[in-house]
Specification:
By secondary structure, the chain is α+β, with helices and mostly antiparallel strands. It contains 15 helices and 20 strands. The longest helix has 19 residues.
């Protein structure tokens, strides 16, 4: 699998011709890097370490062997069908020799080469398929695929056809998910939005769409010549997360003025029934927003803003907005790269030496410290996702023997479960936190001893909602604006949260973990591919490891406000 170092080599060799070829298209260099990594990265990443000339590496970028492949409908299905076509014998000789030459350098092909009927049907850096031999035989017979420019031209042609098929041909730029849809179309000839990235060739672990999206994100962390990459390279055992989205609206600036409660941002210019059903975010008093069109509809103005890193777009009542001429708009805010070593630091419940906090014990203020606990580790999305799955299955929130999470006597433990998942994943979400006078002392540079009931208190879901707002960014958390982005981050190995604060402060709010999708457990999506219910894991009135829960639960009338948070 291609690494960041492999991508750097690729960009050093080919960034200039790719950039020149992409003028006038919505694609960028990182997108073509992702396609190259997915199609032949396992070949050129190996060959470039052998100090081969680039021309030889390009010539050896072949693969996808055929013999009598069951299920293949495209030409050629086997050697006999290829040999029967005009110039087929010559093409078989080329395809067979290509396999032998590549297999001499790439491990794992000795058994394939031993079958004299085997031959390659993917050619060039971007793997143009031999099915096009009937309509463009010279490309293969003259081995034009060995030249990078020719291979790139064919790849772009197929990608542009994907744009047209998806109705993207007028776009001047693509989002990462839109590009993944084009890439899936490039691989399969079509795309079904409701299936998300789990489309295309399945290698037994991941689908083509998932893999190419992961390569794209990794490519965005690599830049040449001292330039800043689009995404900062992640720390070890953390996920790649893109920077907060910029506000693109250019309309007048307004300030939120409710003088009562946070302002509801709605998905459409009307109140819903019940009132919270079409709410997409809540904005605090004094927050600045930009108008999108400047034309109110039904007393609502379409706005855009950034809130703790989340791009928020929707409709607000004009009665709650006042002009803020000359005032700066609310800009995206990136979370801290690492927690502060001084000042306000993490709080932990101290324990007696030798004591162990177990899942089988009743809920308490201590963090788990059982032997053999899994953690979140890995340098690829696939590895991080697998380790998160191991954490979820280790905690086994639905197992009755794990009394720490089981509801009873009117009490539920969503806050403790969310803390435990984050704790094992190496992310700070407090089980206990400092009281106000302790915070003041810490801010003044004083050292404070954590003492339950004195300097620290236990955190409930409502408390965690406020903590994330006030302190979350200092500990690496940032908001995201949609459930689609929330699930996308989780699928890359990040930790996601949905947290809702109750209107009645004495009653429990709710917090859940958003987890990576699996082959069998998936988020719910609408016909446009937008996530309507992320894949969640929770303790609560009902405990479950993986599920989509009650639709839109965070907008229930019992909650004052809700938010989506992610941590790389």
């Amino acid at each position: 699998m291609a690494t960041a170092d492999d991508m750097r080599w690729f960009k050093e060799q080919f960034e200039a011709p790719i950039a020149a070829a992409l003028v006038g298209t919505p694609f960028d260099v990182d997108m073509l890097v992702a396609i190259a990594c997915q199609e032949t990265g396992h070949i050129w990443s190996t060959l470039r370490r052998k100090a081969m000339p680039t021309e030889q590496i390009l010539a050896l970028c072949v693969g996808d062997t055929l013999d009598d492949t069951a299920g293949r409908r495209a030409f050629p299905r086997n050697r006999a069908e290829l040999m029967a076509a005009p110039n087929g014998a010559q093409m078989f000789a080329i395809a067979r020799k290509a396999l032998e030459d590549m297999a001499a350098h790439i491990a794992g092909f000795s058994g394939v080469v031993g079958n004299p009927n085997k031959f390659c049907h993917g050619f060039g850096m971007f793997q143009r398929d031999l099915q096009f031999f009937k309509t463009d035989p010279d490309y293969f017979l003259q081995r034009r695929y060995e030249g990078f420019d020719a291979a790139l031209e064919q790849c772009l042609g197929e990608l542009k056809r994907g744009l047209r098929k998806l109705g993207f041909e007028t776009k001047t730029r693509l989002t990462d998910l839109e590009f993944a849809a084009v890439a899936i179309t490039y691989n399969t000839g079509g795309f079904k939005p409701a299936k998300g990235l789990k489309q295309g060739h399945f290698d037994g672990t991941q689908f083509y769409g998932e893999k190419v999206f992961g390569f794209l994100r990794l490519a965005q962390t690599v830049a040449l010549g001292g330039a800043a990459p689009r995404i900062s390279p992640p720390a070890p055992d953390t996920a790649i997360l893109p920077p907060p989205s910029d506000v693109t609206a250019q309309g007048a600036i307004f300030m939120v003025e409710t003088l009562e409660a946070p302002l509801r941002v709605r998905s459409e210019p009307r109140k819903s029934d019940p009132p919270g059903r079409n709410v997409v975010a809540h904005l605090p008093d004094g927050h600045h927003v930009r108008a999108v069109t400047g034309k109110p509809v039904n007393g609502f103005l379409e706005i855009e803003t950034s809130l703790s890193g989340a791009l928020i777009r929707g409709f607000c009542s004009t009665r709650m907005l006042v002009p803020a001429d000359g005032a700066p708009p609310s800009l995206p805010a990136a979370p801290a790269a690492a927690p502060s070593a001084g000042g306000i630091v993490a709080a932990h419940m101290p324990r007696r030496p030798g004591t162990v906090t177990k899942r089988t014990a009743p809920a308490g203020a201590h963090s788990l410290n059982e032997a053999g606990q899994p953690g979140r580790t890995g340098s690829t999305p696939q590895e991080l996702v697998a380790s998160i799955a191991a954490i979820i299955d280790h905690l086994a929130v639905d197992r009755l023997a794990h009394r720490r999470y089981q509801p009873g006597g009117g009490s539920t433990f969503c806050n403790i479960y969310a803390h435990d998942v984050c704790h094992l994943a190496g992310i700070y979400l407090p089980r206990v936190w400092w009281r106000q006078r302790a915070l003041e002392a810490l801010a003044a540079g004083q050292r404070v001893q954590p003492l339950i009931g004195d300097t620290i208190v236990e955190m409930r879901a409502n408390d965690l909602f406020r903590w994330l707002q006030d302190f979350g960014p200092a500990f690496g958390w940032r908001r995201t604006g949609t459930t689609t982005k929330l699930q996308e981050a989780a699928n890359q190995g990040a930790i996601g949260l949905i947290v809702a604060r109750r209107k009645e402060d004495g009653k429990s709010g709710h917090i859940v973990i958003v987890i990576p999708e699996t082959a069998t457990d998936r988020a719910r999506r609408n016909s446009s591919g937008e996530v309507t219910a992320p894949l969640q894991s929770q303790a609560g009135a009902a405990n479950f490891r993986r599920g989509t829960g009650r639709a839109n639960w965070w907008n229930g009338e019992e909650f004052a406000e809700s938010a989506f948070w992610v941590h790389g």
